[in-house]
Amino acid sequence: MNQIKCVDCLNFVPQEKFVQGKSVMVKHYGWCKAQSMWPAQDNDNQVAPSDAKRVKPGELAKMVPVSPDAVVVHCVQVIGK
Q1: What is the tens place of the pLDDT at every residue in 20-32?
Q2: pTM for the whole thing?
Q3: Which of 2, 36, 51, 70 is most solvent-facing, going by the fewest CB within 10 Å?
């Protein structure tokens, strides 16, 4: 049973937004890299992790949002930092 917070997992990707042309972290959620499927190509102001899984061109991305402080007890893909 997992006891590691999402923010302390190597699969946690913090969400960022652009404010006045600068990247700012969104502290209340991020993405689970292990469970998400990123778009086939990055869009403007969007950069997926280099090792992210991607959907085929024309398919919709399947992003899995997570709360940084959440502990997903049934997660088998957790990797502690």
Answers
A1: 877 777 788 999 9
A2: 0.82
A3: 51
